[in-house]
Amino acid sequence: MGWPQPKMPKTFFRDASTFRPIAVGYGSCIATDRITVDGAKVGYLYRETPDSPSDSGWRFFAGDESDEYVENPGNFELYDVNTIANYDPLIASCLEASPGSAFLRVDGKFVREKSERPDN
Prior knowledge:
Blueprint: E1 28-32, H1 33-36, E2 44-47, E3 55-61, H2 67-70, E4 76-80, H3 81-87, E5 102-106, E6 109-112
Parallel strand pairs: 1-3
Antiparallel strand pairs: 1-4, 2-3, 2-5, 5-6
């Protein structure tokens, strides 16, 4: 029987000491390591019904993650929305959208998806 492997520490693309207040007060979110570790821009974001009072409901992806990548919970972390806004300030243009909203990056801006995700 194999023992669980220790979780490897992540090396983040941005230094948190350089963060500015871009999207303060939104709460927590989930983002993939493609954004925070690899430095990819947000390519897809959606908002679902929050899981807790501190959860914003926002979920951020680079948009090029494979199914296998997404199925690995080790490729995700919980962050403050302001952290992801410091990686990609353009997300601030979407943060007031209601649960069930989804956006794709198209030609350098976010465009609301026509068929939005169901509000879970």
